[in-house]
Amino acid sequence: MKKYFPVFITLVLCAFQACKPKQNIVYMSNNNFEQEVSQAQYVGLHIQEGDQLQILVSAFDDIAVRPFNINTMSKTGDAGSQSSSGNTGIAPSEYIVNSNGTIIFPVLGSVYCKGMTKKQLQEDLESRLKRYLTDPLVIVTLTNFNFSVLGEVKSPGQKTSTNERLNLFQALALAGDTTYDGNKTNVKLIRYSDEAGKDEVVSLDLSEASIVNSPYYYLQQNDILYIEPDRNKQVGVNTNSKVDQWIKYGGVGLGLLTLIFSLTRK
User: Cβ distance 37 to 212 under 8 Å?
Assistant: First the structure.
């Protein structure tokens, strides 16, 4: 039987290679999943140049609040439509953050908001408005939360989310999830940095539960995710994948036939 040992080893190795599990396909596979997720924190979106904001100012005095909403500025002084319902029916006003990082707000003029979270802008506006209104309430909404997902996903392209608290996995879900050939251990995220004045690229390992502690776990508007192909896909770019499979499984079959032929000749 010793002379058949090399053939047997070859057969075993071929079978092992054919049945070897594919790597880099499992999300958050480490053992600290519950602990890691419990530490996740959301700090909010940071307002950027070109963002479209909807802002609604309300207060108990319907007449006094009109000058601070673009949609009701023209009704200022019109006592005939006075209501005590606290601005019922007023639509939010649209603002675009200009290249200086500011919005032009009624009465208040230029308000710098670039880099702020929505909550910070809300508090800033409410503080300014207290000079004119009693207990003003400001609601800020971002209407153009866009991001892009490229590479090994089922539906690449630019996406728009109605959910501002969007994490990496939700973003991938909107792109149909990664393909079978996507490498989850080396996902690239491209994000513009105001401090650096340019786009920065970071590598993220989605196979680790600790990803939820990353400052990049929650997306910012205009982020770009790139899921690169795994090594098998990269190697197979210039070859026919079906031929590769036939060669792999054909090797197993050939080894088996060789072993059977050798045994029958004994």
Answer: yes
Are 170 and 247 a contacting pair, CB within 8 Å? no
Tokens of 248: 């792999």
pTM over 0.85? The answer is no
Q: Judging by DSSP bridges, how do beta strands 157-160 and 146-151 pair with one another?
A: antiparallel
Nearest to 255 by CA among 21, 9, 2, 20: 9
Are 217 and 165 in contact, with CB atoms under 8 Å apart?
no
Beta strand 93-96 pairing with 157-160: unpaired
What is the C-alpha to C-alpha distance for residues 125 and 54, in angstroms, rounded to an integer? 13
pLDDT of 84 reads 43
What pLDDT is recorded for position 188?
95
Structure tokens at 61: 């005095």
CA distance 67 to 104: 13
What are the tokens at 151?
Answer: 């590479």
Task: Tell me how far CA of residue 176 lies from CA of 20, 103, 158, 171, 187, in angstroms.
Answer: 26, 36, 13, 9, 16
Residues in the chain with pLDDT values less than 50: 7, 18-19, 33, 36, 38, 82-86
Instruction: Answer whether 175's CB lies under 8 Å from 185's CB.
Output: no
Nearest to 226 by CA among 156, 169, 167: 156
DSSP 2-54: GGGHHHHHHHHHHHHHHHPPPSS--SS-STTHHHHHHT------B--TT-EEE
State the Cα angle at 112 between 110 and 118, rounded to 5°: 120
Using alpha carbons, select from 90, 129, 91, 122 the residue that is nearest to residue 108. 129
d(CA 249, CA 52): 56
